[in-house]
Amino acid sequence: MKDCLDILVIDDDEVDRMNVQHLLDKEGVKAVVHEASDCKSGIEKMKSREIDCVLIDYRLPDANGVEVLEKLTEVNRNNVPLILLTGMGDELLVAEAMKKGASDYLPKKGLDGKTLAHSIRNSIQVGSFEKKVRAAENALAESEKSYRTIVETVSDVIFRLGPDQKIEFINPAIRFFGYEPSELVGQPIDKFVDMGSADKDIIAKIATREVGPLSTCNLEVNFKFARESILGEATKPVPVLLDAFGLWDIADEQVFKNEVKKNFLGTLCIARNIMEIKAVEEELLQTQHHLMQAVEDLKLLSTIDGLTEIGNRRFFDEYSEKEWKRAQREKNPLPLS
Fold first, then answer.
1. Residue 215, Cβ neighbours under 10 Å: how many?
2. Which of 73, 88, 158, 331 is most buried when burial is the number of CB atoms within 10 A of its CB?
3. pLDDT tens, position by position, for the chain (337 residues)?
4. Count of Cβ atoms closer than 10 Å to residue 301 Cβ
5. How far is CA 323 from CA 255, 302, 313, 319, 329, in A?
6. CA 78 to CA 80: how far, in whole Å?
7. What single DSSP character describes residue 227?
């Protein structure tokens, strides 16, 4: 809270306005009191100054009752706390006024500095807390919006399983395989995962409870196309690399501690289509095979005459000269056979 507060008092009674400053000074509250005698001038001062708190007489010459709050709320962009100063017989309308945005209310009769100062401080603190909460909620909403945009636009298939291993959420990337996300919610993962013979092992790895280094990483599985998919009728299941992480209601580093109370929430899975990678790998293997075959053919051409299919004379001469030099160096006879 600021060292010196800016307080706006909207009251048609000059004595009451002056009394606010007197009571605050008496309590040692550093404050600059701005005065307005009616709702209209009060609104102008709210627009033109940074106000920390507004004290409002419930009955003004140009506005009465809840109408005062409604007009002030329209221009109260910074959510400045509004405190009502009520007179005799106004208490019955206070509940309605509080619903319209009043932070507190104080009876004018018998008002003392301690009560006034406490109400102002408390209203400002509550208002500050509410601002932080709204800011956090807005930031969270923006963050969720950003993450949702990413999840809904990436080509990776992202899905969440519940503790019962049923699909709770799956992103639109699954449409590549002919499924609608809404149709898969509540279904088991074998609806689109080709299990094969080791279905129990695959399910355990996909629906893992583990986190960190023990979680499932780069598990190669196949996603099958929907039966109604035209593409699926002529296409084999598509290979994907799948990562899976257990979701708990505590931090990951706490999951491994037995004494910590924890609840398993489900599993988050991310699958990357590696069909193109597999095709490239296959092409590289074929190219490598062709190269090795070409090397063998070149070796054969260098030693066998292509026309006569007998030993190449040039190769024979080069090989004979090399063996003759080796025999001389080692002082051994040159074998002729």
1. 17
2. 158
3. 678 999 999 999 899 889 999 999 999 999 999 999 999 999 999 888 899 999 998 888 888 767 888 888 888 888 899 998 887 655 567 777 778 888 888 888 888 999 999 999 999 998 888 888 888 888 888 887 877 787 778 889 999 999 999 999 999 999 988 899 999 999 999 889 988 766 778 899 999 999 988 999 999 999 988 865 454 455 678 889 999 999 999 887 887 777 778 899 999 999 998 866 555 556 666 767 767 777 776 666 666 655 545 556 666 666 677 777 777 777 777 666 5
4. 12
5. 72, 18, 15, 6, 10
6. 6
7. T
* Residues contacting residue 279 through CB under 8 Å, at least 6 positions apart: none
Is the C-alpha dihedral spanning 12, 17, 19, 20 positive or negative?
positive
Measured CA to CA in angstroms, residue 3 lies from 50, 131, 253 at distances of: 14, 19, 43
Structure tokens at 316: 């024979």
